[in-house]
Amino acid sequence: MANVTLRSLVKHYDETPAVRGIDLNIADKEFVVLVGPSGCGKTTTLRMIAGLEDITEGDVVIGEHVVNDVPPKDRDIAMVFQNYALYPHMTVYENMSFGLRLKKVSKEEIARRVENAARILSITELLDRKPKQLSGGQRQRVAMGRAIVRDPKVFLFDEPLSNLDAKLRVQMRTEIKKVHQKVRTTTVYVTHDQVEAMTLADRVVVMNAGRIEQVGAPNDLYHSPATKFVAGFIGSPAMNFIPCGLEEAGGGLRLNLGGGIMFPVSEERSARYRPYLSSKRLLFGLRPEDAFEQRPHLEPGQHAFEVVPEVVEPLGMETLVFFAIGGVEICARVNPDCGARPGAPLKLVADLRHMHLIDDDSGRVL
Amino acid sequence: MASVIGVDPAQAGTARAGSMRGDRRRALIWSYVFLCMFVVFFLTPPLYMFITSLKSSAEVGAITNPWWVYHPTLDNYLALLTSEQYLTFFRNSAAVSVIVVVLTMLISVPAAFALARMKFWGSATLATGVFLTYLIPETLLFIPLFKIFAFFNDTFGISLINHWWVLVFIYPTLTVPFCTWIMIGYFASIPKELDEAALIDGAGYFQMLTKIFIPVALPGIIAATIFAFTVSWADFLYPMAFTTSADQMVLPAGIVSILIKGDVYNWGQIMAACLLGAAPPLIIYAFLMDYYIAGLTAGATKG
């Protein structure tokens, strides 16, 4: 059990920078997910923690020690790979016990640990099989079992679920969370799937272009994104971004989205937004669930507007309505019974308490 | 005419299926034609050898049907199996081949592992270089080798000519490059994550090689072994050039030198000796053929 600290971590491949300076503290027993689009440096960061990649600059600290020059086997970590990386010629038992056998752990101790891990993962009946005889989900469990038996300071997961089909992925996600609740080992998990990140993490680290965009608990990232990138990356369907103008109106401020749609800005936001009155490039950000069908009475901060849906996508529990404001496609989540039809005008409500105003030049959420 | 135009759809359907079957039939017929040609081409010489090996010298010389044995005899085989010389050739061949195979594997497996996995300065060039070495034919090499041996003799006073064990050092120049090359291809097809997993599990390079790479690449290693064995068992030029006395010879050179006396060809015994000499590789192939094919194709598709 240990905390992991990354200090100004930099990685260059020849001249190409992959990671451009990362500072991160991961507490003991914490489950941290690195998430971002491909090429954002998340896997490289994980591999530097594992010791599979040289560090160009900065430090990796595991527990008390800087481990920059410590080989992987002495870092006391375990890693689960995307393609499982099970040894094809060994049985499940041999796969799981390989590391312990190399460390010359006694036979009884090995058996005890393997059986314990197998029980946690419910793969006891698979111990005599070869990887070839296992399904994808079973292989994934074995790969996790191999990590658990080592009882390492840190678990590293490198996109462990991306080779599984959608249904199994959801199942294994829950499984991983359960395992972490039982074993409580510090975990660093890399994924490009924001749903996986949100569901698993104690804290999510959103990365982009080799840098950290924001670190925070899943709900904090969702409700208070710091940048446009985080706002657009977290949440599905993604947040709507509409170019808008900020103007003075009767002592307060209002947002002009074009197409005759204007929203007043609440008082507490006005003070924050006032310095940006002259800004030319502002974006109004609203999540699809904050634009919904008209209801009998509006709460304060909710404002009605009318649109003409272009596409209506029923999903059963809800219906997605797509329409355009000023040439930008917008998505709203409405009640399936509200009678949205393509081409027929529809009254919607925007819940401005959850809106964001983004400076498109800096990418910051204001 | 009317009946031809009025073909009903069901019949048209079966006609189409029929033409598909006909297509497959034609393909099969041609496959068999070429396979038969292949079989005839490659099996006629051994068959002819076998027929001749059952004939006495008198019958070989007589003007009879060369494809038939009128007075079959095992004398040729008996003469060889009781001949001290022939058995010496056999022993020398066996010793040379086994040692060469072991030596080749000891060199080329670690070499291939290093070239495939331990990225170091010049490893890619070196890997290509290994293969280029293999492309130089032995006919070009035996004279320079002779010169090197002469230099050795002059400098250290060690004569390397006319010893069967010298072949143990010469054959690896043929087997090591090729075996290294196929092993590089085979090792390269093993996913990178497997070594990384082993690395994290605490394996060093040596354990990674012995506990992961060799077992996983076993089919490739067996293919390489068979190749090394075949080359060192069947090579003709080097033993002809470098060994002269009968007790130092291996089979291919020995058969030619003791069974051809001047211009007298003892055909029956030559054929029997060749067939007996071909037996060991044949037996080894029969046992390891599946591995051999698996090894060659794995390299072909994943490389």
Give the structure's gist in a few sentences.
By secondary structure, chain A is of the alpha+beta class. Chain A contains nine helices and 22 strands. The radius of gyration of chain B is 27 Å and the shape is globular.
**Low-confidence spans of chain B:** 1-14, 299-303
- Strand pairing plus helix content of chain B: what structural class? mainly alpha
Please summarize the sheet with the most strands of chain B: 2 strands, antiparallel
Oligomer category: heterodimer
- Class of the largest domain in chain A, according to the CATH hierarchy? Alpha Beta
Give me the CATH fold name of the largest domain in chain B. MetI-like fold
Strand content of chain B: under 5%
Query: CATH homologous superfamily name of the largest domain in chain A?
Result: P-loop containing nucleotide triphosphate hydrolases
Supply database-style keywords:
heterodimer, A: 366 residues, alpha+beta, Rossmann fold, OB fold (Dihydrolipoamide Acetyltransferase, E2P), 2 domains, six-stranded antiparallel β-sheet, 22 strands, B: 303 residues, mainly alpha, two-stranded antiparallel ribbon, 1% strand, globular, disordered N terminus
